[in-house]
Design brief:
With about 160 residues, the chain is α/β, with parallel strands linked by helices. About 35% of the residues lie in helices and about 25% in strands. It has a single domain, classed as Phosphotransferase system, sorbose subfamily IIB component (Fructose Permease). The protein starts with 5 loop residues before the first strand and ends in a 16-residue tail after the last strand.
């Protein structure tokens, strides 16, 4: 059993949507988008909408966090995986569960009650910051970048 070929893991609270999926996918050359999300894994309607937003010729999978942990190591090396999660807490659960997340792209984390805006499309609260700290301690590279054509923002912004 080799390592699963995860090209990139991205935090995006909209998960798969339009341009973003297409742009990242074009850059990465993934042939499988794996959405690791407990709610979406049970929601066929949202899966259908995301399938429509996914780039042509790319497979999609919708797994719970636990199922992702259980089966990711069965992935074939031919599966070039772009994994999408909703928030840093889910990314941390995956990493702690043995999913090899080497690079975490922090894309969209919307502003909501109790959060502060720290980067162009990223708002965080203490729980988010703590999850990012733990991921960093585990050796995960954190990269704040909305789409491949926009500049990378300084990850230190997450911890200010």
């Amino acid at each position: 059993m080799g390592e699963p070929n995860i090209l990139l893991t991205r935090i995006d609270n909209r998960l798969i949507h339009g341009q973003v999926a297409t742009q990242w996918n074009g850059t990465l050359g993934a042939n499988l988008i794996l959405v690791a999300n407990d709610k979406v894994a049970k929601d066929k309607v949202r899966q259908g909408l995301m399938d429509m937003a996914a780039p042509a010729g790319v497979q999609t999978r919708y797994f719970s966090i636990q199922k992702t942990i259980e089966i990711i190591h069965k992935a074939s090396p031919k599966q070039k995986i772009f994994m999408v999660v909703e928030n840093p807490q889910d990314a941390l659960k995956l990493a702690e569960g043995g999913v090899p997340i080497k690079k975490l792209n922090i894309g969209n984390m919307h502003m909501s009650e109790g959060k502060r805006q720290v980067a162009t499309t990223v708002a965080v609260d203490e729980a988010d910051v703590n999850a990012f700290k733990k991921l960093k301690e585990m050796g995960v590279q954190l990269v704040i970048q909305r789409v491949p054509t926009t500049p990378v923002e300084d990850e230190k912004k997450l911890f200010q």
